[in-house]
């Protein structure tokens, strides 16, 4: 079994178990703290469209105008440690949070909320809906049987290779807007193995990891370097963040279908409101930080 890293073949997964490298602490206050930053009312649908995943111009300009920080933030293709090291603890910033909802395709094609500890079988199909409590950058990496990490998002063929995420504007993987039905879901195959998917959410882009035009050029000019396989100090910095404590809160009810509000928010780039459905799992950093790393462990039975 292997988790495909090509956009055109996002179709292999296994049993899903929520797992965090640093054991999470179940905390009743986490969900409330995460939802506090949601707007009270739904964002206007007038002229709404799928948001750009490219860095906002103001962010890019600010980065360029800071020579002392250029090595860490402005060159997505440079080598070196991440720009958000574990020693970086922002002051007066909210704790970073990531909400996750796992959907499973039923026999009628509907997306149903599913317990991440559900035991999946061959032929089952799932989709993951992510939500953050602040603006930032989302990276998704995969390892197979403890093998080398591979970046599956951002991707040179998706979203102009961007990975900028807006607060409370949901992001789904794979996308329900894919041209073919088979590309809208991860599918469980017959191959046994252990997969881990790492969701890395940062306030600023990671150095040493190409995104946007750098990633597109890399994949165009050096196909053997795509998908990107982070190594050395880059991956070591991410691994270090995995051991930072997280607080977690899980929902107890599953089985309901994805709502129209969630579907529209995902496909049209609308922010979820306070009264919209909540993530099944919410993970928050224990203290203000610049990076949050959450892990899904995928085991095929």
Query: What's the number of domains?
Result: 1
Q: Please report which band the strand proportion falls in: under 5%, 5-15%, 15-25%, 25-35%, 35-45% or over 45%.
A: 15-25%
Q: Helix content range of the residues, please?
A: 10-25%
Largest sheet: 8 strands, mixed
Termini Cα gap: 11 Å
Q: What is the strand tally?
A: 14
Number of continuous helical runs:
6
Category from helices, strands and their pairing: alpha+beta
Q: State the low-pLDDT regions, or none.
A: 1-23, 60-87
Principal-axis shape: globular
SSE sequence, one letter per element: EEHHHEEEEEEEEEHHEHEE
Average predicted local confidence, pLDDT: 80
Radius of gyration, in Å, reads 18 Å
Q: Can you describe this structure?
A:
Mean pLDDT is 80; it is low at 1-23 and 60-87. Helices cover 17% and strands 25% of the residues. The protein has one domain. The radius of gyration is 18 Å and the shape is globular. With 301 residues, the chain is of the alpha+beta class. The chain starts with 14 loop residues before the first strand and ends with a strand. The strands form two sheets. Strands 2, 3, 4, 5, 9, 10, 12 and 13 form an eight-stranded mixed sheet that branches.
Brief digest:
With 301 residues, this protein is of the alpha+beta class. Helices cover 17% and strands 25% of the residues.
Structural descriptors:
single chain; disordered N terminus; alpha+beta; 8-stranded mixed beta sheet; 6-stranded antiparallel beta sheet; 301 residues
Describe the secondary-structure layout.
Blueprint: E1 15-19, E2 25-26, H1 28-35, H2 57-64, H3 70-73, E3 97-105, E4 111-113, E5 125-132, E6 136-144, E7 150-153, E8 164-165, E9 171-173, E10 186-187, E11 194-202, H4 212-221, H5 232-242, E12 246-250, H6 260-268, E13 281-285, E14 291-299
Parallel strand pairs: 2-12
Antiparallel strand pairs: 1-14, 3-4, 3-5, 3-13, 5-9, 5-10, 6-7, 6-8, 6-11, 11-14, 12-13
